[in-house]
Write a structure and sequence with these properties.
Order of helices and strands: HEEEEEEEEEE
Number of strands: 10
Shape: rod-shaped
Structural class: alpha+beta
Distance between the termini: 118 Å
Strand order of the largest sheet: 1-3-4-5-6
């Protein structure tokens, strides 16, 4: 005679509980994953803007370093002009929330991204020393500061920044 074998498998109640627990865990994991993706996008956008700003600052420093005839309206101003290594007049200034560059009086060209906001008051400042090259003044030098905010996305709060850079003229004093 055969013995009845016990039934094997899961009951309906066990299946409902396990599917429910799995769904809750997956919901939490998906929410965390989407949050990480969003944070990565924000970080990449901010990094892209900081790279743009860094490129603008490096470009300004490089051209100022190889320039001559530094000229400003006063010692501390938001506009700066000089003659570059190719003999062109370059003017860096604040215009419409961005930093612009004019070459020989041409139309201003923005060198910073429009998502980088620079305020009109003290957003871009140039400090010039030793404009009259000679033993008393030393080598002409320029320090400039840029302050403002970066807004990588309309849904994000702006990130404030202050950057300072400088350049000393590379002309040889004889």
């Amino acid at each position: 005679m055969m013995k009845p074998q016990p039934m094997r498998g899961y009951t309906l109640l066990e299946m409902i509980v396990s599917v429910g627990l799995f769904s809750i865990v997956m919901l939490i994991a998906t929410a965390a994953y989407l949050t990480l993706i969003n944070m990565d996008r924000q970080t990449r956008a901010t990094s892209d803007l900081m790279t743009n700003l860094s490129f603008a600052v490096d470009s300004m420093s490089r051209s100022i370093r190889t320039g001559t005839d530094y000229c400003v309206a006063g010692c501390f101003t938001d506009s700066f002009s000089f003659i570059d290594s190719e003999g062109r007049q370059i003017i860096y200034e604040y215009e419409g929330g961005v930093i612009t560059r004019k070459i020989n009086g041409s139309t201003p060209l923005a060198i910073t991204d429009p998502r980088i906001t620079i305020p009109a008051t003290n957003g871009l400042r140039f400090y010039v020393w030793g404009k009259n090259s000679g033993p008393a003044d030393g080598q002409p030098r320029v320090t400039f500061t840029i302050q403002g905010s970066i807004t990588p996305d309309v849904n994000l709060d702006p990130v404030e920044f202050v950057i300072q850079s400088g350049a000393t003229q590379r002309a040889i004093d004889l």
